Task: inverse folding
């Protein structure tokens, strides 16, 4: 198969979907790999490093799409990329279609087979291609939140860990999955007071053991969340209902309960956001204020640390990319039911139920 890797074009996105190690694996399996010139630059990978492992370099995205059967990317395709997709293509990338009917419609109309990293499952129902980026985003969420709490950036002006004689800031994390756990570990490392909320009691049990009593685990009922809001300085939203639009865990009227210039970090923004007042922002302009509360809602948080993120992502995606290249997407999906869960669009139809439900497009 011919596998193509274009340069990411979303604002402030510096990751790339293949590394030289990935090129080596694909070439050893008898596949041809084409890379857009400069695609790896943002992640400190040169064209020469790709070429040394057997890839060819093409000048632009149009040439990569033209030459390839499978396109591997990082972020959801932008409009100019959707326009280059044809029924012969397999697209393998993050898609986050549930909150985006327009993109879903574009992919349906392209006729391409579109496989979403974020809905691929492993044999235990976990999300192996979302997890590495969730680890990165969780760690950034606390870092960014701590920074935004500084007064010149619009925050309350409180130091996360406090100092001897002055209390630490209070951090509330809603959603104790991969993002939430990583956010909590960094917050604990910075010596904040940490509360983690989830609706899955088994998950709260696991977290309680992982934190060794250093963070409080709390059931995420609407009332319990509301009662905590007046005392916290930083809230990190990290809930996920796989493939579906994120549920709102904080409503606009509840912002009035919070301290002035408290900070909300909505990591779930790529699934539509879990605070009613969230809207996507970028690394260059990451925050805005609603009712006196600062919101940070960057949709591609791991894009800010591409050297780490590209390697973490491709370590996880590589076995799946090689399998699809070896077997073709149809057979690979039959052989691996977890990969089949990633197939969101095929032959002009949505094939992933939560996306069809959210977008209202035919299933
Ligand atoms: P996960 O499945 O590991 O964890 C989600 C947790 O949310 C689960 O423990 C689940 O029980 C809990 N949950 C679901 N509904 C809830 C509710 N109403 N109240 C409280 N808890 C609830 O998912 P994850 O890998 O941690 O990802 C979390 C979110 O972060 C996803 O939307 C993911 O797409 C997003 N994400 C965003 C970025 C970014 O750059 N913005 C990067 C990576 C991941």
Result:
């Amino acid at each position: 198969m011919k596998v193509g890797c274009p340069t990411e074009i979303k604002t402030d996105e510096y990751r790339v979907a293949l590394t030289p190690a990935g090129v080596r694996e694909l070439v050893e399996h008898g596949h041809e790999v084409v890379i857009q010139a400069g695609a790896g630059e943002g992640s400190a990978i040169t064209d020469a490093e790709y070429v040394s492992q057997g890839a060819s370099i093409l000048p632009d995205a149009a040439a990569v799409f033209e030459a390839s059967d499978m396109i591997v990317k990082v972020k959801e395709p932008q409009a100019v990329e959707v326009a280059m997709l044809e029924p012969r293509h397999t697209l393998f990338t993050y898609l986050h279609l549930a909150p985006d009917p327009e993109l879903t419609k574009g992919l349906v109309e392209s006729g391409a087979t579109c496989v979403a990293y974020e809905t691929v499952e492993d044999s235990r129902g976990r999300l192996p291609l979302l997890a590495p980026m969730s680890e990165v985003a969780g760690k950034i969420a606390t870092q960014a939140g701590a920074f935004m709490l500084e007064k010149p950036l619009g925050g309350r002006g409180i130091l996360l860990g406090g100092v001897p004689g002055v209390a630490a800031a209070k951090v509330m994390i809603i959603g104790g999955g991969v993002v939430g756990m990583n956010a909590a570990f960094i917050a604990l490392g910075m010596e904040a007071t940490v509360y983690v909320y989830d609706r899955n009691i088994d998950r709260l049990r696991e977290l309680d053991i992982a934190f060794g009593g250093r963070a409080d685990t709390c059931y995420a009922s609407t009332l319990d969340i509301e009662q905590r809001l007046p005392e916290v300085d930083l809230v990190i939203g990290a809930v996920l209902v796989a493939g579906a639009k994120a549920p709102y865990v904080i409503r606009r009227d509840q912002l009035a309960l919070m301290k002035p210039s408290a900070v909300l970090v909505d990591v779930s923004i790529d699934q539509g956001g879990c605070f009613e007042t969230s809207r996507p922002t970028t690394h260059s302009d990451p925050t805005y204020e609603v009712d006196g509360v600062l919101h940070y809602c960057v949709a591609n948080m791991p894009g800010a640390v591409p050297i780490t993120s590209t390697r973490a992502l491709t370590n996880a995606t590589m076995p799946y990319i090689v399998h699809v290249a070896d077997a073709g997407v149809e057979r690979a999906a039959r052989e691996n039911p977890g990969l089949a869960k990633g197939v969101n669009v095929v032959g002009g139809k949505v094939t992933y139920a939560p996306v069809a439900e959210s977008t209202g497009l035919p299933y």
Remarks:
- The longest strand covers residues 193-198.
- The chain has 13 helices and 15 strands.
- The mean pLDDT is 97.
